[in-house]
Write a sequence for this structure.
């Protein structure tokens, strides 16, 4: 264990976040990254997976919460559990494959300790070797440790590592309306994961990806080479209609600044927010036969229209995911180091809707978010250039001042603003500061204790 | 009716790889039939290109966009440009039907892509569906199965 003096204190974290600017260490420092894993990703509610990834009893799927390896598993009572992926004996990871079915219990491949699918210890071979050793008084004898708290929200599994902390409802509040809208788009009110996720490795800090989801001043610049070229080729072909798929999906990135200003950004407390309050780049997709009819049959025409007219673009569920409701996509930004992030992009089927919607969703995923995507290429290029550029000692601060009110902003209230504001990025850093410091020692307190 | 020999089919596959290595994309695009698709599955032995995600499933519009973009003045991820290199094993000719003008090859290859100080290697199998049109061989469809298609990758910017 590192000495307390090696660790960041709450004051250090607070110094790094100054409203209109943040210190570059938040992106580059190993100490900050370690503190994020220990505090932020333990105190916040973090996305784990979707229930349809583990539909049957004994089905499991392995992932990470921050740096913590965990298993999402369907227990014998039908509930989904989230367990630390570590044998309480020697630490061996219990499951290595990305998904599978373990039957009624997990069995460690090293010494055959076995555990029920809620983590409770089931059996140890040659158990008499532990008689009168005191093993039964240890934490290890209880079994595989469960995370602090788990919530299944309309099929999406979230967990809080910490045993105590903010409730799920308070943490997400009104932001859950974006998940609601995505799920409501299914005539049966249910989503199913469609295939494995894209897995895209980024040599940059995870927060750059999260910030970019509501960065509406980059598409027409960074993506000119893909979106601009798409428009050019289409015009050379004589503007054919219906437009090629690439035109529907990629060309809107070239929309002018005024379009993105009018699109609007909404922020919620605790770092959540979304682009596309009034309209979005997803507004003009062509209608798919039979879908509206199926929605009307389930919800009635008025409610069906209200669900489908919602055009939220990217919703950030702080800290680590983005949900794109009209596309039924979820991107998970998994931090692997201060300068390494794995992005997993999942798509979901709207149960009861025509297959064409899922085909469009799959197309969107590969066109925009694959390691082979001409749009993704330019995003990653920007992140990696920023990660390298931040090593420059020329300036220490990163600027977040677009449409900054030049006074202390109140992030405790929901707000809707001009779609090009960087308020949502500032909102994220405010939440970052809150959940980083809530379990962190303060230098002032320690000095006081020493004096007493 | 012109008949193609096994060697001619194999030479076609070698020539295509060389076009990609040398960046002769206009000639490469001209090999394709207009309704062709370049498919790179995401999952091992994936059977469906439509309802699950693939790495690539591109029609001619997307392929044209992809190669035109490479030469754009503001194509930031290609400053400097990537280079690629194919080392191919002699293709198996799994279908040679001169009557119908249909051909299928299966080719193992090692694909290397590089930019700045980074270089990576992909092992893959390419399946080509070829068709005889006006006496010439054309690509009807191409499927590229990466050996590690389910691994996490950084940018793959050129075409295996």
């Amino acid at each position: 264990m590192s000495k307390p003096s090696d660790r960041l204190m709450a004051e250090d974290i607070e110094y790094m976040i100054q409203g209109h600017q943040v210190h570059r260490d938040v992106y580059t420092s190993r100490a900050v990254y370690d503190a994020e894993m220990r505090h932020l990703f333990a105190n916040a509610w973090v996305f784990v997976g979707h229930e349809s990834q583990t539909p049957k009893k004994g089905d499991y799927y392995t992932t990470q919460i921050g740096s913590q390896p965990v298993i999402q598993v369907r227990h014998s009572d039908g509930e989904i559990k989230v367990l630390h992926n570590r044998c309480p004996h020697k630490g061996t990871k219990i499951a290595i494959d990305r998904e599978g079915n373990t039957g009624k219990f997990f069995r460690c491949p090293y010494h055959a300790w076995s555990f029920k699918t809620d983590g409770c210890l089931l059996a140890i071979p040659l158990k008499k070797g532990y008689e009168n050793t005191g093993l039964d008084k240890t934490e290890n004898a209880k079994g595989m440790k469960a995370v602090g708290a788990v919530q299944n929200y309309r099929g999406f599994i979230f967990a809080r590592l910490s045993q105590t902390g903010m409730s799920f409802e308070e943490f997400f509040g009104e932001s859950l309306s974006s998940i609601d809208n995505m799920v409501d788009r299914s005539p049966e009110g249910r989503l199913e994961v469609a295939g494995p996720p894209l897995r895209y490795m980024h040599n940059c800090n995870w927060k750059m990806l999260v910030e970019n989801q509501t960065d509406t001043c980059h598409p027409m610049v960074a993506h000119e080479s893909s979106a601009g070229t798409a428009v050019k080729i289409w015009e050379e072909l004589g503007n054919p209609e219906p437009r090629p798929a690439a035109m529907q999906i990629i060309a809107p990135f070239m929309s002018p600044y005024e379009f993105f200003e009018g699109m609007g950004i909404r922020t919620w407390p605790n770092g959540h927010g979304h682009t596309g309050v009034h309209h979005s780049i997803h507004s003009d997709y062509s209608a798919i036969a039979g879908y509206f009819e199926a929605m009307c049959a389930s919800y009635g025409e008025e409610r069906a229209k209200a669900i489908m007219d919602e055009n939220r673009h990217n919703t950030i569920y702080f800290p680590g995911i983005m949900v794109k409701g009209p596309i039924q996509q979820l991107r998970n930004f998994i931090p692997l180091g201060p300068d390494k992030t794995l992005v997993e992009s999942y798509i979901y089927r709207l149960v009861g809707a025509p297959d064409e919607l899922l085909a469009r969703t799959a197309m969107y995923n590969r066109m925009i978010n694959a390691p082979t995507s001409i749009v993704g290429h330019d995003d990653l290029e920007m992140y990696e250039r920023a990660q390298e550029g931040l090593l420059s000692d020329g300036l220490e601060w990163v600027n977040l001042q677009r449409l900054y009110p030049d006074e202390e902003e109140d992030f405790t209230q929901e707000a809707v603003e001009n779609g090009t504001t960087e308020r949502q990025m500032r909102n994220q850093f405010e939440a970052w500061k809150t959940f980083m410091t809530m379990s962190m020692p303060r230098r002032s307190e320690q000095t006081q204790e020493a004096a007493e | 009716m012109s008949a193609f020999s096994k060697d001619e089919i194999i030479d076609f596959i070698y020539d295509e790889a060389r076009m990609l290595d040398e960046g002769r994309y206009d000639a490469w695009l001209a090999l394709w039939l207009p309704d062709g698709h370049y498919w790179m599955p995401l999952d091992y032995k994936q059977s469906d290109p439509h309802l699950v995600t693939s790495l690539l499933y591109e029609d001619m519009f997307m392929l044209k966009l992809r190669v035109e973009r490479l030469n754009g003045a503001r194509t930031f991820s290609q400053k400097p440009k990537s280079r690629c290199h194919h080392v191919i094993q002699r293709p198996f000719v799994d279908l040679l039907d001169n009557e119908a003008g249909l051909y299928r090859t299966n080719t193992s290859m090692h694909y290397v892509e590089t930019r700045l100080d980074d270089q990576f290697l992909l092992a893959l199998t390419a399946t080509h569906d070829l068709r005889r049109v006006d006496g010439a061989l054309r690509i009807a469809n191409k499927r590229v199965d990466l050996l590690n298609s389910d691994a996490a990758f950084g940018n793959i910017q050129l075409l295996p």
Notes: The two ends of chain A are 26 Å apart (CA to CA). The first strand of chain A starts at residue 21 and ends at 23.
